[in-house]
Amino acid sequence: xxxxxxxxxxxxxxxxxxxxxxxxxxxxxxxxxxxxxxxxxxxxxxxxxxxxxxxxxxxxxxxxxxxxxxxxxxxxxxxxxxxxxxxxxxxxxxxxxxxxxxxxxxxxxxxxxxxxxxxxxxxxxxxxxxxxxxxxxxxxxxxxxxxxxxxxxxxxxxxxxxxxxxxxxxxxxxxxxxxxxxxxxxxxxxxxxxxxxxxxxxxxxxxxxxxxxxxxxxxxxxxxxxxxxxxxxxxxxxxxxxxxxxxxxxxxxxxxxxxxxxxxxxxxxxxxxxxxxxxx
Length: 280
Description:
five-stranded mixed β-sheet; Four Helix Bundle (Hemerythrin (Met), subunit A); alpha+beta; Nonspecific Lipid-transfer Protein, Chain A
């Protein structure tokens, strides 16, 4: 057994560590053999190229290893909308002049170190409540956010490159669950249909899911499965579902032509689809 293999040995059975390792390994595979033209391709994540996506992942994991972010280069670009976006941009900007292959090598090394670190954490560390992009949560939940973020950026890269893959695994499972769980907020708060409204979602793909949002006491409550008599029923593939939820596309994009089917109240469905973005 090599020294590198020994570094990964532990008794840690946290599923989220496996999800991160799987997603980061798939991301590394997606970026093999790219030339600088491919590294420079724009992605659906506003303002970022393929290389910028990897730079972002590198920066976040370096920060979690204890490294301070680079100094800001000056005024934030237009695609930066909040302090977290500004923080992320500092790591990306610092690598804009670095060849893509070197950034990828850095990604390989920093994720290796992070997996090794996570595998040596005990259960009590994953239970520990602390800051995260979604507020004070157990570290385990924070790492679910990291798997969600990492998988979405992997898919940003694959879509830009035309390299399909990375589907049906733990990263996608976490991502679809997070988008599903956001539907109560989207339907109940952002759209606000009348009391008793039921909106069903039927998502197809490697990991199909069905859910219904019911407006109860003015709030959107997410339930498993499809309602028997929904006000509106929305059917769409998983790649459209998560891209809408993550603000990668809008309902008016041509990619949605024929991809989304609606039965029932079309006006409510259209409003929901237009408001689905909950994550940057």
